[in-house]
Design brief:
It is a single chain. The chain is an alpha+beta fold. The chain is globular, with a radius of gyration of 20 Å. Strands 3, 4, 5, 6, 7, 8, 9, 12, 13, 14, 15 and 16 form a 12-stranded mixed beta sheet that branches. A 4-stranded antiparallel beta sheet has the order 2-1-11-10, with helices on one face. The longest helix has 19 residues. The chain starts with 9 loop residues before the first strand and ends in a 14-residue tail after the last strand.
Length: 370
């Protein structure tokens, strides 16, 4: 993918307040039958694998049950092992074939989000002086199992601040678990202020601001949450629901909660996303919304959505913390006194989010993943 335009959700600063200018997402194409959608992915994956030579293929092709599947993470290249062949190892035609795999499993909205995350990572290297191998060349594509219209297999695309897992079992496509994040989440491109994950944060703040004085104390966690709880390496863990239950929301608020959830669900192809959102809607009264942090500015607070088949966390990192501006590994190079600082704040320039389904991570409800 040529990521030079730094495209994505954007925002302008008006009096110090971030106002989102939501990206214009093209209307989705006519939804295909699930078998046709699966056939497209199988064709794209087989074309990609056929383009690789004998030295490259073992880096990209794994057994479906290979435990390396669960080793995705949000660290920069070289800091920890992950599955897949790196984009910089591919010839232009091979890279085009790899992009076609992503195009087949993701929606237009999802592709734009992936491009925006990689653009931010490119900015980190080119404008902020990171030497961690940032940018599109550092991302990796792996195929687990044999692409098939009937047997289970998986597409994994992962790298710094991105871990996309799409499991395919016949007509069933499963996005969970998937990590979308950004550093910098906010940066300038010419005269524009770009906010990579503005869409998610804006929808959440809209829901938060809709709550009345009786609902807000039930939604807000008074103890500050500083990081996501079920990110990489937390497979199989389940937490008890906390926050405001949607059964105690108005019909309009439930729609806002569904709209917020769709910012993650809609990453995958349109047919799968529509089916998943129908499932989330069916369970909406059993879904919870939790907030921790600033309730006035978009993007400066942790929030969580938890339902029977969905777990979403949005987690700004901490000022002075690892990787943040002025913190360990961030611009300025200072280590700070992160662990001892009682005044640490959430940093909207460095954000992690994760999407899971406790019942179906890696498509486990459809086929054993490991």
């Amino acid at each position: 993918m040529q990521v030079r335009a730094y495209a994505g959700s954007s925002a302008v600063l008006l009096g110090g307040v971030i106002v989102a200018l939501w990206a214009q997402i093209p209307a989705p194409a006519a939804i295909q039958a699930p078998s046709a959608a699966t056939a497209r992915v199988v064709t794209a994956a087989n074309t990609f694998l056929a383009s690789l030579d004998e030295a490259q293929r073992p880096k990209a092709k794994y057994a479906y049950t290979d435990p390396v599947k669960s080793k995705w993470h949000n660290l920069p290249p070289g800091m920890a092992d992950r599955a897949g062949i790196r984009m910089k190892e591919l010839t232009p035609p091979q890279r085009q074939a790899a992009e076609a795999v992503l195009h087949a499993v993701l929606s237009g909205y999802g592709e734009q989000k992936v491009r925006s995350i990689m653009a931010a990572d490119q900015y980190l290297g080119e404008k902020m002086g990171s030497s961690a191998g940032t940018g599109p060349d550092g991302y990796m594509l792996a195929i687990f199992g044999t692409p098939s219209a009937t047997e289970p297999w998986e597409v994994q695309f992962n790298g710094h601040h991105l871990g996309v897992n799409v499991t395919i079992v016949g007509s069933g496509h499963v996005l969970a678990p998937t990590l979308t994040a950004a550093y910098p989440n906010m940066y300038t491109d010419g005269d524009k202020q770009v906010v990579v994950l503005a869409d998610e944060a804006g929808r959440a703040l809209k829901l938060m601001n809709s709550l009345d004085s009786a609902q807000r104390p039930r939604a807000i966690q008074t103890a500050q949450i500083w990081d996501f709880l079920l990110g990489p390496g937390k497979d199989g863990q389940v937490l008890q629901p906390e926050g405001l239950q949607a059964s105690d929301m108005t019909a309009a608020q439930k729609e806002l909660l569904l709209d917020l959830t769709s910012a993650w669900v809609n990453i995958i192809d349109d047919q799968t996303a529509a089916a998943k959102m129908a499932e989330v809607r069916k369970n909406i009264d059993k879904t919870y919304f939790l907030w921790s942090g600033d309730t006035t500015v978009s993007g400066k607070a942790y929030f969580r959505v938890q339902g029977p088949t969905v777990w979403i966390e949005y987690s700004p990192q901490t000022v002075g913390g690892p990787g943040s501006i002025g913190g360990r590994g961030g611009r300025g190079g200072g280590r700070g006194n992160f662990d001892a600082d009682p005044n640490r704040q959430l940093d909207p320039t460095h954000v992690h989010t994760v999407y899971r389904d406790f019942t179906n991570d890696y498509g486990k409800a459809l086929a054993p993943p490991f």
